[in-house]
Amino acid sequence: MARLLLYLVLVLPFLRGSDGAWNQRQIRKRIHQLREVQYFKSFYTRLGMPRGVPYKPADEGYITQPLDHFNRRNNATYNQRYWVNEEFWQRPGGPVFLFIGGESAESEYSVLAGEHVELAQKHRALLVSLEHRYYGASINKDGLTLEGIRFLSSQQALADLASFHLLISQKFNLTQKNTWICFGGSYPGSLSAWFRLKFPHLVYAAVASSAPVRAELNFIDYNKVVANSLSDPVIGGSEKCLDKVKESFRVVESLLTEKSVTQLEKDFFSCAALHPPEDYMEFVSNLADIFMGAVQYNNESPGSDVRKICERMISASSAYEGLKAVNSIYMEFMGLKCVENSHNKSLSDLKKTELSPVGVGERQWYYQTCTEFGYYQTCDHASCPFSPRITLQFQLDICKEVFQIPTESVLQAVQFTNEYYGADHPKSSRIIFVNGDVDPWHALSVLKNQSHSEIAIFINGTAHCANMGPSRATDPPSLQKAREEIGMKLGEWLKSAREES
Fold it and tell me: What's residue 38's pLDDT?
C-alpha cells in the first residue's frame, strides 16, 4: 500500500497543463489514477496477501535508445524505462507478452495486473512492458523544448520496441520458439496493431483495444457517438436526457450571446472572468468535457457516468439547472473549488517544458496530434449536442501558437499517417481489434473482420479499453464473452506458433 500511496502523492501535485479544455485534462488524469488503484487492488487480491505486506516487485530497468533511429549520424541517446515480471514464465520456451506504453507514465503495475497479466498466468508467459519515449521517466532533460520534442513520433516508438525486443531476447536467451504477443489500449492499441504490421518477424500476434488506427483531422464522429450514448437506455441514457443536454447548451449559448457572462461565471464557478472569444470557447468546452468524459470512461469513474448524469439532467427543474447540478457533482468529485476557463492559461500550460516523471504527458500528446493524428473532437456538425463554438480551427490554432505548426502541415501529417499504416484497413494478420460501442473512439478503429486472422470484437454496453482491466465478477456478460473470445483466439495462435517452430 505504501508504494501506491507514494505514487499517488507524486501524481497529484502535477494535475495541470494539457490538450483540449481544462476539464478534459483533469478527467484524463483522474482516470489514470483510478486505473492505478484498480490494478493495485487486483494485484494484491490475486496474491491473496493483506495489503501492506511486502512482495517481490517487478524488475525495473532502462535501455539506452537512439534519439533518432533513422539517422545513425545523430549519436544522441536517451534512457527508456521498462519492467519485467518473470513470475509466470515457463522457461525456456514460454511466450513473451509485451505491454506497450502510451501517452502517460507507466508503472510496475503494467506487468502485475490487467487482462494481459491474467492471460500470461494462463499461458505461462514472460511479461514485459516498455514506457513510451518522451513520457514518464523516458525522456531527456531538454525533451519538451521545440528542438528536443521533434523526435517524438509513433514511427520512432515502433523502432524503440524493435530495439527493446532485441534487448529482452539477449537478456533471457530467447529464440524463435519464444512467441511474442503485444498488447495495448487506445493510442498504444494502435501501436500494438502497427508493431505487428510493420515488424511481423518480431511479434507473432497483437491485441489492439480501443485503437484509433485511422487518423482524422476533424473527428466529428466522436460527439456523434457521445450523443448516441447519452440516449442509449442500455447504459442509463435516454432521448429525454439527450434533449435536456442540447437544451442546456442552447441556454448557455444564448447567455453568452446576450453577454450575461457574469451569471455564467457565477453559476459554473469560473476561476476568473471570461474574456471573448477564446475564453468562451474554453468555457463551453469544459462543460462539454463532463459529458464526453462520462461517456468515454463510463463506469470507470465512481463520480460520473451516463446513468448518473442523465438522472440529474432529467430530475432538475430545467435543463439549465440540470447542467449546473452536473457541473457541481463533477467539481465535488474532482475536488475543485473553481474551473479554469482561461485560454491564455491553457496555452501557457502547453508551452511549459518542465519534465514530470508521472501522470499524463499533455504537451507531448498535443504535439503528436499536431504532427501525426489530428483527432480533434469538434462540434462542426449539426448532430453535436454541445456548442458550435467548439471548432476545428480553434484547436488547429493551438498547434501554430504552441508548436509553430501551420494548419496545412497538420493536414498533411494526418494524411501521411493513414498512408503509412493503412488507416482502418491495415492489411496485416493475427490482430484482434477490441472495441466497445459506448466508446467514441471506436469510430476510428476496425469494427469488422478484415480477414480470417484480422478479427474485430465489438462489445455492447462498454466504453474505452473496458477489456484491459482485471476481470471482475461484476463484468457484464458481453465483456465476459469478449474476454473468452480473446483468450481462445490467443490460445489458438500460440498453439500454431509452437507447431510452426
Answer: 56
Q: Which ranges in the chain are annotated with CATH 3.40.50.1820?
A: 58-214+423-500
Burial 471-489 (b: 16+ CB within 10 A, else e): eeeebbebbeebbebbeeb
Q: Is 462 helix (H, G, I), strand (E, B) or coil?
A: coil
Question: Cα dist. 174→170, 171, 442 in Å?
Answer: 7, 8, 36
Distance CA 411, CA 43 (A): 43
The owner of cell 463484468 is 475
The pLDDT score that the predictor gives to residue 358 is 80
Q: Is 478 one of the catalytic residues?
A: no
**Quick one: which of 136, 119, 124, 228 has its CA closest to 188?**
136
Its pTM stands at 0.91
Please report the pLDDT score of residue 22 as a whole number: 56
Residue-level pLDDT at 24 = 61
Catalytic residue among 18, 186, 192, 304: 186
Distance CA 490, CA 245 (A): 42
Low-confidence ranges of the chain (pLDDT < 50): 1-19, 44, 49, 53
Single out the catalytic residue among 116, 123, 132, 464: 464
**What CATH number labels 58-214+423-500?**
3.40.50.1820
Per-residue model confidence as pLDDT tens digits over 123-176: 999 999 999 999 999 999 999 999 999 999 999 999 999 999 999 999 999 999
Contact 251, 320 (CB under 8 A): yes
In the residue annotation, 186 being an active-site residue is answered as yes
User: Which of 439, 442, 445, 478 is an active site residue?
Assistant: 439
Q: Is 343 a catalytic residue?
A: no
Q: What is the CATH number of domain 217-415?
A: 1.20.120.980
